[in-house]
Amino acid sequence: MFALADCNNFYVSCERVFNPMLCGRPVVVLSNNDGCVIARSEESKALGIAMGTPLFRCRDVIGRHGVAVFSSNYPLYGDMSSRVMNTLGAMAPEQERYSIDEAFFDLSGFRRFGLREHAALMRRTVLKHTGIPVSIGIAHTKTLAKLAAKAAKKDPSCGGVLMLEGADRVRRALASTPLEDVWGIGRQWSLKLALQGIQTAADFAGMPPALVRRLLGVTGAKVQAELQGHRCLPLELVRPMKQTICTSRSFGRNVFSVEELQEAVASFASRAASKLRREGSTASLLTVFISTSPFAASALRREASRTVSLPRAADDAMTLVTAASRVLEAIYQGGHPYRKAGVLLGAIAPKNPPGESFLLFGDEGEGRAEALQQVMEQVNLRYGNGSIRLAAEDSRAWEPLCRHISPRYTTSWEEILRVPSAPQAPPAPAHR
């Protein structure tokens, strides 16, 4: 049996862990540059605030109902995610981390404890250790487990754990699930299937398999088989290697100068290098892209990108930053109000020890370059990201707006939560 653990309104829940006064109050979390709503509490959903709504369009509702607004605090959310996943993994070791707030588990070995009882224990333990509420769905396939977890969130009577077992119960669940809510279908396929009169997951599960394969290919056929209870998607205990790595940001304001763009691109290339090294991989292709806002005046609007092959597969910041800076110089054109830039790495492959990627010091200096990279990573690990960085990254005046950011409670010593000490009782009078 598979289980899916899904954190409830994860970003909002992270904010509430360190600020209990937010419990019961409507809360929203915003995207980069405080642009639009990407997470909502149940109270905010009840007010009609939709996912993806631009902030300026819901300011009236926010003001009238006292909605708490937060900028995205990814260092906090990432650390809390690790704590949740580690807690779950200690109780169900066969784990596939699917996203920042979701993970699949194989619970086949826990039948003797009672699957629902064990899942409920996992849920209580996560809440106790981290303060994050989770919902858990259990079923014979990953697709059905995903459906069960979503149902567990909506049905308070199940206590946060829902087990889909038995043909009648599965049939009822499929009949009440809109097709676009099925994992792996999405809006485009659901619109395509609506032309065939297919509206629910049950309709889709009952389609002729040959028709599904003709309309949606092998992927659609696997989704249908999963809904019918046939396992097609195994648990991925080892995460597959990424095909590309992209680091990009929208700027908090218009950026005109090549110098500020260089700082941004250098920072993105450095972050991409860190991701590569965590994966134990190297990249042979590098793309830099820059663009203005799509809403800029047509005469000022511009998009540009270029891809280059690196001399050798690389994973270090110095090589990637140097290459990215040269590409930016080639595609930059002055006079445009740039609002976004990014670096994309491709042709990713496993790193071959002892390392063939460090070009800054030449072949003879590869050991020194590797040692330097490791020292920088150790410093940033101990004192926080950005404590030591390449000079090319410089001032970061281009960074996104974060007007409503909460402290990084768990990853920065300077921002750790401080609880006021209780007032001292006056000393007892001395006995004479």
From TrEMBL:
Biological-process GO terms, alphabetical: DNA repair; error-prone translesion synthesis; SOS response
Molecular function, one GO term: damaged DNA binding
Sorted UniProt keywords: DNA damage, DNA repair, SOS mutagenesis, SOS response
PROSITE patterns: UMUC
Pfam hit, one: DUF4113
Gene Ontology cellular-component terms listed: cytosol
Sequence ranges assigned to domain UmuC in this UniProt record: 2-186
Family membership noted in the UniProt record: Belongs to the DNA polymerase type-Y family.
PANTHER family in UniProt: DNA REPAIR POLYMERASE UMUC / TRANSFERASE FAMILY MEMBER (PTHR11076), PROTEIN UMUC (PTHR11076:SF34)
Protein name: DNA polymerase V subunit UmuC
